[in-house]
């Protein structure tokens, strides 16, 4: 199941746009992540250099990223180490209009900071959606069996 769950995790993470990212003493804030198949077990973020999360990443902080997506039916608590990255090629690859909206200039704005989160583990819940969940609840009430709420497990990276 772990291999299937890991594949589903990555497939769904590619379609999710945001979560809550926190690290050490940096409070959790909404952030957009980027998945890149060329850097496995890694999430990328773009932020401003003066943010708390960027400062925490400058020390190689432990980080937690929480994802909750009703549309993709994925819920995850992801742990890893977040660091500052100076990989201009990676920044070129993931830069988009959403990131540009936060900065006065383009990706060369001196305030742009690329962050890299190398994942250690994730507790993951994958569901099949609301209709399946409602069916399972109704069935459980009739049969006295526990509902099948989907897949749940801890992934190690």
Automatic annotation (TrEMBL):
Which SUPFAM superfamilies does this UniProt record tie to the protein? Answer: FMN-binding split barrel (SSF50475)
Q: Which InterPro entries match?
A: Split_barrel_FMN-bd (IPR012349), Stress-Dev_Protein (IPR052917), YdaG_split_barrel_FMN-bd (IPR038725)
- Record's superkingdom? Bacteria
Instruction: One Pfam family, please name it.
Output: Pyrid_ox_like
Residue intervals of the General stress protein FMN-binding split barrel domain: 6-148
* Protein name from the UniProt record: General stress protein
To which species is this protein native?
Answer: Sulfitobacter alexandrii
